[in-house]
Amino acid sequence: MAQYRLALEAGENRPMALFNMGNCLYLMKQVGRALASYQNAVEIAPAFVRPYLNIGGIYFSLDEIGLAISNYRRALELDPGNLAAIKIQGESHLKLGERAEALAYFEKGRRSDPADLDCYQNAAEMGENEVAVAGMLNIGKRLFKRGDVEGAKAVFARIKGAFPGDLQVTQALSDPGS
């Protein structure tokens, strides 16, 4: 933490130093001070995306979902393809019971990175099982065909945990090459 204070005093890449100090403060469970540090970083550099994600994360953890969403929205305005912001925006809407908005973000996440398992799992948890199972199975099969057997097994195990007793999953686990 001392190195970040020195960087702040010297004015060296001040927004990044504030961001890093916020990270240190957060790890030390000083959430209020971390939040202030992230907010100072975006005051100085309003186009700096990462602090918006952390500000949103703090508000999410404090159950201030509206404030979390506005910070994730700002991050997405600056970086529309930011998968972390897309996913957490979906989770925020889901926490508010806004299923249609949440599903739209999870779908955007799947389109942004078809190999991201979280987007499929989030959709599955919302009852979109067919899409989720098919997508996750395709990821597992691609890994298997590339020779990443352990990666494929991990994906299939995750699917099996999410969809116990699903016939498609059982078949894929018995013959991953199909």
Keywords:
single chain, 178 residues, mainly alpha
Structure description:
- The chain is mainly alpha-helical and 178 residues long.
- The chain is built from 11 helices and no strands.
- It has helices at residues 2-10, 14-27, 31-44, 49-61, 65-78, 83-95, 99-112, 117-125, 129-145, 149-162, 167-174.
- Helix 6 runs antiparallel to helix 7 (99-112) and helix 8 packs antiparallel against helix 9.
- The radius of gyration is 20 Å and the shape is elongated.
- The N and C termini lie far apart (53 Å).
How many strand elements?
Answer: 0
What is the radius of gyration?
20 Å
Largest sheet, if any?
none
Overall structural class, as computed from helix and strand content, comes to: mainly alpha
SSE series: HHHHHHHHHHH
Number of helices: 11
| Helix amount | over 70%
In round numbers, the mean pLDDT is 83
Taken from the alpha-carbon principal axes, the silhouette is: elongated
Give the strand content.
under 5%
Task: List unreliable stretches of 5+ residues.
Answer: none
Q: Termini, distance in Å?
A: 53 Å
